[in-house]
Structures are given as structure tokens and as C-alpha cells.
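for the writeup, i need someone to sanity check this before i put it in the appendix. the sequnce is what the collaborator sent (i think, or maybe the updated version? ugh). structure was predicted straight from it, no edits. if anything looks off just tell me and ill rerun, i have time this weekend
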Amino acid sequence: MSQVHALSDDQVGQELRKMTAFIKQEAEEKAREIEIKANEEFAIEKSKLVRQETDAIDSAYAKKFKQAQMSQQITRSTVANKTRLKVLGARQELLDDIFEATSAQLADATKDEGRYKDILKGLLLEGFYAMNEPELAIRARKADYDVVRQAAEAASNEYKEKTDKDVKATIDEENPVAEGSAGGVVIVGGNGKIDIDNTFEARLNLLKDSALPAMRKALFGDNPNRKFFD
């Protein structure tokens, strides 16, 4: 049988130191692994947090920038619209002043009886041609009855010469044109159902509609935004 030799105290001490050194080395290596892993995880988490914060800042900046752009566009559009409306208002005011001044001068055409008679003749002829009826009624201001009769006779004669047709035009004294009118006549036909308003005020209103585009162009130039023309 083999004999088991007991270790001496020195041998026991050496073995203990070896074991202690081994355990210490293992512990240090484990600690280093834990530290390296912890540092790696920290770096990953830190990078993730930085990315999240950066994305959040970028998103907030992009949102604010878009809001600022929209606000700027709205402000520009509002200012442009207000400016355009002011310009249009000023232009319309000028046109209204022109027509108002013209309206104030309408009555001047009646001061020269000869000239007024020629004007009435032209207005009556226009109505005669348009109605093309043998009998017509004429409405006029009471103050104009005499000159209207003269103009109607001259217009009837010219109508006869041009068309070889007779027309009997009589003044409708029961329905005179209001004395506040500047002048002119109303030609009535179709048994009283059709009338052509050739008073000065009515002709001026027609002129407003027909001449307004040309007046705008003459006063303010071409409109670059207008795509269609009459």
C-alpha cells in the first residue's frame, strides 16, 4: 500500500497562495470583462440617447421652420391682398369720380336747343329702327315737349327716307319722364309692353358697362392677370 504523506506547513502555505492568486486573477479578469461590457453598453445607450435627442431637436426645428414659412406666406398673402384691394378701391373711386363728373354735366347738353334737338333726333331714330312699328309713344320731360315734338318730326321724316315706312310718334303726356332727369327720351312700343330707355342717365349707365374696360386700360394700362378679352 502506498503511503499518504502529509503536507508540511510551508507546502500548505504555497498551495494556499497559488489558489489565492488564481482566484484573484480570475476575479480581476471577470471584473475587466464586466467593466468592458458595461462600458460598451453605456456607449451604446449614450449613442442611442444622443440620437433620440438629436432627432427630437431636428424634428422640433423642422416643425418650427415649417410653421415660420407658413406664417410668412400667410403674412405676404395678406399684405398682397390688402394692397391689391386698396389699389382696386382707389381705381374704382377714380372711375366713379369720372362718371359722377360726367353725370353732373349731362344737363349741359340741353342748354343749346339746336344741339339738343339733334341729340333727341338721334335717340328717337335709334328707337324707331329697333321697334320697327308704325305707331310709337314717346316719354319725355314736360319741359322738353316742344323740342321733342320737333325732333320726332325730323326723325320720322328721316326714318321714312331710309326705310320707306311711316312711323307715327306721339308724346305720352300721362307718363312723363321725371323732371329730375337730365334729359333724353323713352320710346315705347309693343302696345306699351316694350320700351327703350334713351334718357341721358340710361345711356350713361350703358356707357359705364361698355366703355369701362377701355377706360381702365387707358387709365391704368393692361391687366397682366386678365386671360380673356371681349
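The mean pLDDT is 82. Strands lie at 135-139, 168-171, 184-189, 194-199.
thx in advance!!
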